[in-house]
């Protein structure tokens, strides 16, 4: 039934599906590992048990998310051999060692210290346990570094030569690892991971504040999350702008698609806020735009010329509509995060951070926003690179394995079924864990013995009539 389908399109959909499931778990675990390190450090410094209780609460959630991230990553990597063997053959001399370094450094570091972090507090002592937590957090950052170096090299390839059989062979490993887009992409992605985690933590804290359960623990995690939103969201917007300028320099066609510029603008390009890209007619229908603002943002000059897609052959254009909308989703969520951060600062100044239920409701709604923004940004980056796998050098059409469409379709259907069952169950379990924040301990009752017959003296409960409070 899939004989008339395009094997290349199906293979791209399969990789997009698996990487979309995979990326949400590392985006969460990178930020959560650092959050755990901060919680344990604060506990050792301040000796406040609430930080240790929050550490134990989020530690279990991290373990589940980390496990699902590892499993989904391993499954995804097999597609390099099944669906993209030509790409693996041609680019393998460059990307193979980089991915191997990720395993030899980051994965071994995480695996070596994860057990100590999860189960070893009472066995190795507080100092060594804190060191293990730091190493797990450091390992997640190293993992992101290597993987983003691979992806950035595919976006802005450098430090290579082509051999006689058409393979990319390394000539300068420093240039390969630290390729032109790598620093910007690494900073942008790591900050995105921290914001993603902050809004999940904030949503969990808001949920329990709204329910009135564990107000001290919930209030502490909510306050920490809102500090992260208020401080880091503006930094992320600045980092994203710098990343965009780097993309304009090295991948101008991607920026043309992001901005919806079908036509060149010799005297200043408008910023199109919204519209419907019409790839048939090469225009943006119903465009709501601000004149010359795009030139000001991208070139810091209102009248700076910007080239459009009319300068690019049709077969070298990315899918404009997808890139156009995914970019706007990412930017809109970024400014929404900034708005939540500003709102939290106002509530903190008014002394209502823990009592303003409107802020709590907004934070609860924004809980999954980081995942949506990460996916939107990833779609912008990867779809905007098309029609290349290695930008400017290797076409996607020349990277696919000699495989029939029915075979790709069968594995795609299997992935969809298994992923939704396995990772759906895992996600449901994580949500259940998030909803079970233990109640704050009751105040010490030192006014006499507690009655076991179902009633408690009024002096112990603070209520008249002796009725038990729970």
UniProtKB/TrEMBL annotation:
Composition-biased stretches, type Polar residues, lie in 452-462
List cellular component terms (GO): cytochrome complex; plasma membrane
Q: What is the top EC class of this enzyme, as a single word?
A: oxidoreductase
> What's its membrane topology?
Multi-pass membrane protein
Localization: Cell inner membrane; Cell membrane
One annotated GO molecular function: metal ion binding
Coiled-coil ranges per UniProt:
none
Keyword terms of this UniProt record: Cell membrane, Electron transport, Heme, Iron, Membrane, Metal-binding, Oxidoreductase, Transmembrane, Transmembrane helix, Transport
Residue span of region Disordered: 444-470
**TM spans (from-to):** 20-45, 57-78, 98-120, 127-148, 186-210, 222-239, 322-346, 358-380, 400-431
UniProt similarity note = Belongs to the cytochrome ubiquinol oxidase subunit 1 family.
Q: What is this protein called?
A: Cytochrome d ubiquinol oxidase subunit I
Native organism is: Rhizobium rosettiformans
